[in-house]
Structure to design on (455 residues):
């Protein structure tokens, strides 16, 4: 009799896991409490995978050999609690996929910067001609890709929710970029639980593996000192020069590895700001661990394009640069964004507040010359910044926000969408918010061009 695998959630990861499980001969059933997209339904139909939507039928779920859960489904959801109560293993899609790859894993986590570091690392390996796949919390499902192809290397963005579903998952190179309190509702509102979740990425590593840590982050440093692990620690930092690892100074990023020193000019980086130097240190250090030569890394770095919705330049109008940072849904991410610019900023901020403490931004908001609040409830933002910023405007329209930004700015200044908040009051998600920002910019650009032609 075939072992029965249940997939909870039919998004990208769940559908991919279902397709791989079916291809490997399991009895597969998919259950999604919401609505399954038409594209994913078509994939399940084609693979002859049974599914339900709009409900979780216990009789069809709680007879499972194993459950693969979407990272977005909290462990305290009733059907998950009942499965755990019956000692049914509940794992993540990446944990399942790991059992079917012969490739080496590069796993990247952190509160902020995961996507940029994942994409840059993948870019460097891909440009060097390595056999490399991309997956995890970005791009296509690793499990879904494994139905047709495997790679020598997999670069995976891993959220804490995904890491919580790891049992045997073992990255050859594991990277921890930073930790700031986030998603604490999933961790009993205890930051120490969230930190422990991040660090469990390293739990299965051995002495032949590598742990890359930004140890100038106090939460990372303090936890690592008290909880040493088996893999080889490589640090990346700014203040001190590590014996082995990477560091950055104004002239470049330097990697110390195997008693050799490798230097890469800051001019090669297309991503700006101190936080992106941290991301670049992690990516370049990883590239060196995969034996990529310096000249190939130096050739590849200038070709890298920033990911969408993360400090993404959408264009210039009369020397005014419009930056889409819609992915900055917490205060810490906005701190990095504001810190990345020395030019005056017109800052578009707001949305669904996540318990934000805006005082954390006081040190980096001194070059904000105007604030445009974009959200249904902006009182908290206005109250905090009313004595710090001379101009505070308010709107619930992205088009109005972009036009206001243009009118309030002048040459060499920046109109920055970096919301610090979730998007669900006015938009479908942060991608929709960022796309609407880009569209509003394009409409404004066209309107200005038409006026110019008519004169």
């Amino acid at each position: 009799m075939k072992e029965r695998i249940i997939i909870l959630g039919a998004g990208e990861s769940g559908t991919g896991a279902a397709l791989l499980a079916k291809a490997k001969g399991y009895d597969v059933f998919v259950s999604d409490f919401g609505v399954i997209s038409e594209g994913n339904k078509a994939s399940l139909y084609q693979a002859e995978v049974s599914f339900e939507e709009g409900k979780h039928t216990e009789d069809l779920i709680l007879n499972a050999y194993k459950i693969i859960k979407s990272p977005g489904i909290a462990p305290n959801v009733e059907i998950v609690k009942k499965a755990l109560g019956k000692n049914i293993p509940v794992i993540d899609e990446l944990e399942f996929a790991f059992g079917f790859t012969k490739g080496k894993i590069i796993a990247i986590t952190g509160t902020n910067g995961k996507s940029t570091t994942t994409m840059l690392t993948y870019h460097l390996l891909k440009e060097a001609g390595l056999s490399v796949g991309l997956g995890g919390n970005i791009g296509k499902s690793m499990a879904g890709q494994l139905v047709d192809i495997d790679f020598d290397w997999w670069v995976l963005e891993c959220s804490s929710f995904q890491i919580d579903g790891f049992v045997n998952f073992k990255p050859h190179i594991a990277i921890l970029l930073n930790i700031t309190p986030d998603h604490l509702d999933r961790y009993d509102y205890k930051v120490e639980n969230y930190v422990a979740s991040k660090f469990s990425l390293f739990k299965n590593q051995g002495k032949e593996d590598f742990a890359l840590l930004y140890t100038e982050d106090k939460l990372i440093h303090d936890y690592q000192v008290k909880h040493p692990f088996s893999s080889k620690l490589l640090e990346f930092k700014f203040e001190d020069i590590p014996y082995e690892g990477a560091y950055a100074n104004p002239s470049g990023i330097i990697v110390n590895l195997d008693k050799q020193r490798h230097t890469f000019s800051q001019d090669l980086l297309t991503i700006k700001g101190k936080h992106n130097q941290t991301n670049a240190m992690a990516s370049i250090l990883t590239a060196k661990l995969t034996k990529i030569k310096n000249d190939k890394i130096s050739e590849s770095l200038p070709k890298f394009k920033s990911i969408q919705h993360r400090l993404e330049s959408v264009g210039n109008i009369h020397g005014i640069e419009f930056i889409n940072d819609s992915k900055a849904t917490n205060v810490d991410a906005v701190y990095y964004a504001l810190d990345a610019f020395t030019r005056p900023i017109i800052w578009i901020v707001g949305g669904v507040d996540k318990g934000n403490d805006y005082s954390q931004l006081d040190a980096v908001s001194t070059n904000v010359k105007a604030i445009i609040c974009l959200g249904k409830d902006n009182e908290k933002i206005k109250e905090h910044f009313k004595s710090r910023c001379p101009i505070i405007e308010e709107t619930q329209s992205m088009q109005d926000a972009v036009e206001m930004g243009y009118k309030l700015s002048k040459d060499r200044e920046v109109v920055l969408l970096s919301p610090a908040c979730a998007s669900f009051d006015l938009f479908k998600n942060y991608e929709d918010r960022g796309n609407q920002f880009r569209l509003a910019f394009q409409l404004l650009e066209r309107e200005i061009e038409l006026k110019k032609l008519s004169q």
Notes: The chain is about 35% helix and 20% strand. The chain has a mean pLDDT of 92. The chain has three domains: 4-91, 97-303, 312-454. The radius of gyration is 23 Å.
